[in-house]
Amino acid sequence: MPRVTSPVSPMAPPRSFVWTRRIGLSLIALFVLVPVYVMLSSSLKPLQDVSGSFRWLPSGLTLRPYVDIWRTVPLARYFVNSLIVSGAATVCSVVIAVFAAYAVSRYRFRGKRVFTVTVLSTQMFPGILFLLPLFLIFVNIGNTTGIALYGSRGGLILTYLTFSLPFSIWMLIGYFDSIPRDLDEAALVDGCGPLGALFRVVVPAAVPGIVAVAVYAFMTAWGEVLFASVMTNDTTRTLAVGLRGYATQYDVYWNQVMAASLVVSVPVVAGFLLLQRYLVAGLTAGAVK
Amino acid sequence: MRLFRAAAVLSTVCALAAATAACGGGTDTSGGGGSAKTLTYWASNQGPDVQADKKTLTPELKKFEKQTGIKVKLEVVPWSDLLNRILAATSSGQGPDVLNIGNTWSASLQATGALLPWTDSRFQQIGGRDRFTDSAVASAGAAGQDPAAVPLYSMSYALYYNKKLFADAGIAAPPATWDELVADGKKLTTGGVTGLGLEGANLSNNIHQAFVLAKQHGADFFDSAGKPTFTSPGAVAGVKQWVDFMAKDKIVGAGSAEYAQNQTLQDFAKGKTAMVLWQSAASAFESYGMKASEFGVAPVPVASGAPGTGAQTDSMVAGINLAVFKNSKNVDGAVKFVKFMTSDAEQITLNKTYSSIPPVKAAQANAAFDTPAQKVLSQTLATSAAPLPQVAQEAQFETAVGTAIKGLFADAAAGKPVTTASVKAALDKAQQQMQQ
Amino acid sequence: MATTATEPHAPPAGGGPAAGEPARRPRQPGRIRKLSLPYLLLLPAIALELLIHLVPMVLGIIMSFRGITQFFIRNWTEAPWAGLRNFRVALDFNAPIGKALLHSFLVTCAFTVLSVGLCWLVGMFASVMMQDSFRGRGLLRALFLIPYALPVYAAVITWAFMFQHDNGLVNHVLHDQLHLTSGKPFWLIGDNSFYALLVVSVWKGWPFAFLIITAGLQNIPRELYEAAAIDGAGMWQQIRRITLPSLRPVNQVLVLVLFLWTFNDFNTPYVLFGNSAPEPADVISIHIYQASFVTWNFGSGSAMSVLLLLFLLLVTGGYLLVTTPRRKNA
């Protein structure tokens, strides 16, 4: 993959741009990192010091919270549950969204408008009002077919993958729209069916968009609290809900909350680091030639 | 076509994965396994954390299994999730057999009809209603109806005070009346220390104190017909007295107006606050590094005289009740379980662990509850505690009036005046928000 | 391109029969040849949306016409029909409930517009600044996504710590170190709570805008920039003339969904303020939660949600009308 150089290849970026970039990005980095620093320093303090007077450099550091987090709450189990649920939801959601977006982007058919608007309207209803009706539906399905969706990871997977569908579909429609039809033409001339064109041409060209949508789907599932709190039991509980288990009847173990959050976010950020290299200039440029 | 197949395979794999996860994902067939040999029990979090609760309860459940042959599937539900899950269980019929509920939820849950009523004959099955403290049973359902739950753990409010700060300020004994409390508080509020700590943004805490103060002014928040009477002179006076600790008397720090997460307890443990009115806070103080010898416990003050009933009430009846879902497939087993949990032996064991007071009179006599701190609490429970209004709109009441008080504290902290008129206006607004 | 020897007898798992033998002759995309293929591709999405989103929504809408309080939550079918009563109560702006709802609604509008605007600006700025590669860009990108990666609960709690009146970092910096204010202001109660909520919302939300815009920037062909540079356009002009217009479709969707999500965002204010938000920051999601879950009046909560839905439909319709470029062959 060619290294992307400045948008203006013959000229170097002007000094004003470079300095704006340095100052701007530094300020943003500061804004982003200060709370992370507070989290880190809180996670290294004993409980009674956490909400004490603020000091930039804390005294009395201890690694105890990082040991305790695994015991106070079954963190490892919650972590695995979250991975399973979020991973499965992401894979299914992306696949289904790719199919649906391809259909909307490349075909004209009756009901297209209705579909896209209806899908978008689901984002306008407050999530809390979905909760009880959805739970009722799951219970009814359980009573009639014996498949218990409440309290299971499968129910959560179904729920989360649907939650991320509307935005995924809309975004992918936009990305697919920006890929010229000539590429499809070329593939079809070569004898691929429409799905062949999808997999051989459109998807590779839309990799940045698909990566963004996959990240979105994963994070939606990873961080969802309300439905997980009702739809899971002790065995299937996910991280987002499990973290609240550090808040007990009388105490909130702030230091452990921070420690646990940092620990479970490390793999996620590492994932971002790996994935961000796919956010590069697409392969459309040059494909038509 | 290869790609068609690829797509087909991919989708099938997805569906299979989801289905496998669904089947193998620890599905919880709550609502009783359908057999008379199992029970599902949702316990609330009473100990330092969920794992500790499991460690406490599991041996007791094993005892129950040995006695009756019924296996109990335990789940300890954190408070943040408990009400939502109860709501979901109530609306769908899919829930546990037995569960803990906060006693202030009893009337609301009773109104849904989801809980098994405890008739006299059912009470006989667990030894009779007289075994329990009257005030505790009164907090298990609306007056005039059968209780919807059985009291399990009881708590009340007490005044905790810092012995050293008191000694330094030359105060010999903890205050017994509000005037004494204000006077002591003013003496103690110097040099970075405040006299009294409270949680201005904690809705339930506000309600508990406002209720008691209103009672001391001779008023109730609901009349006998269940209609809200938030703007009666007594109620207004009670709320104003509570907010005035910050607004007029200035014995509460302005920062307390935003406390909602037990920061007050930390302040007390660190010696930044000299007095605090709280439920059973001893174990919390110790977890913050304060030794039991450093603080003293006294009954909550009253207007004058000694704590008692009526206008001498000084605490609400706090506690956890044990309820049975009507939909349970194993009602007999559930009643047996309630009998077990309210037996004298279990009451002593569990309440000792949780630093609460057993609502079972016979168990209260045990030596474990003889410590000075526990004595104050059980005394209060027995003689001067009153249950919060057991009306179906209890939750609305807590939210509406609690929020009104939170707003008044915010005004006080910002330096805006808090007058009888402004308090009345806030309570009036809260009253109008009570629908039904 | 060689085709496989085996024929596609396995039907697509999305249900329904296979679309038949694919034609061998080239087709013009956009012309409806195989009517069933697009519907087939949409089938899984439609099925899931119906089950998880639409049927519950319809149930929710029906709930708004009934008086579902704690007395009827066990059996909704027995709840009395309240007709439009729940709506009338919600819309009576002279009574406390209606007045509070209107106030909450206005607060949420202001909050959402400001939050989305700031998220978009910061995300846009960062994306454009980071488009060309420099040393450490990858690391910086991952860093910027950290607020998005952190669990909501912990992140918002951290900000609650920082906004504490007595011991928080914000007051420490503003008052003790920079001496910008005379006394220590309150951030979690009182008028400033609006700004506290705004700051937390922007902190959490801007990385998402950054992510989507970055992905969108990748599809702008280099040739456009090169051509403009040769024509003498400066860096800022290029951004205005090429980058922004090319990002139009992405921005259109991004701003819309950010608006909808921020409007309905429940987690952030709930973790920051608890069950009841202070009046200046009483956003509608908390308001509806109070009206339904906390006070067990689901009929009323549903009615407020339906009103919210109608309002957002209107806004979305208007927005799409205004921002969609006229196309002759739609």
Would you kindly provide a written description of the structure presented here, covering whatever features stand out?
The complex is a heterotrimer of chains A (289), B (436) and C (330). Chain A has 289 residues and is mainly alpha-helical. Helix content of chain A is 68%, strand content 0%. The radius of gyration of chain A is 24 Å and the shape is flat. By secondary structure, chain B is α/β, with parallel strands linked by helices. Helices cover 47% and strands 13% of the residues of chain B. About 4% of the residues of chain B have low confidence. Chain C is mainly alpha-helical and 330 residues long. Chain C has a domain of 228 residues: MetI-like fold (Orthogonal Bundle), CATH 1.10.3720. The two termini of chain C are 34 Å apart. The interface between A and C is large, with 123 and 119 residues.
Mean pLDDT of chain B: 86
Number of helices of chain A: 13
Shape descriptor of chain A reads flat
> What composes the largest sheet of chain A?
none
Uncertain segments of chain A? 1-10, 282-289
State the end-to-end CA separation of chain B. 64 Å
What topology emerges from the helices and strands here?
The complex is a heterotrimer of chains A (289), B (436) and C (330).
Chain A: H1 15-43, H2 47-50, H3 64-72, H4 75-106, H5 112-121, H6 128-145, H7 153-177, H8 181-189, H9 194-205, H10 207-223, H11 226-231, H12 239-242, H13 254-275
Helix pairs in contact in A: 1-13, 3-13, 4-7, 4-10, 7-10, 8-9
Chain B: H1 2-24, E1 38-44, H2 50-68, E2 71-77, H3 79-92, E3 98-102, H4 106-112, H5 120-125, H6 134-138, E4 150-155, E5 157-162, H7 163-168, H8 178-188, E6 194-197, H9 203-216, H10 233-247, H11 263-269, E7 273-279, H12 282-287, E8 295-298, E9 315-316, E10 318-324, H13 331-341, H14 344-354, H15 361-364, H16 372-383, E11 385-386, H17 394-413, H18 420-432
Parallel strand pairs in B: 1-2, 1-3, 6-7, 9-11
Antiparallel strand pairs in B: 3-10, 4-10, 5-7, 5-8
Helix pairs in contact in B: 9-10, 9-17, 10-17, 10-18, 17-18
Chain C: H1 36-63, H2 85-91, H3 96-129, H4 137-144, H5 146-149, H6 152-162, H7 169-177, H8 193-217, H9 222-230, H10 235-246, H11 248-264, H12 267-273, H13 284-294, H14 298-323
Helix pairs in contact in C: 1-14, 2-14, 3-8, 3-11, 6-12, 8-11, 13-14
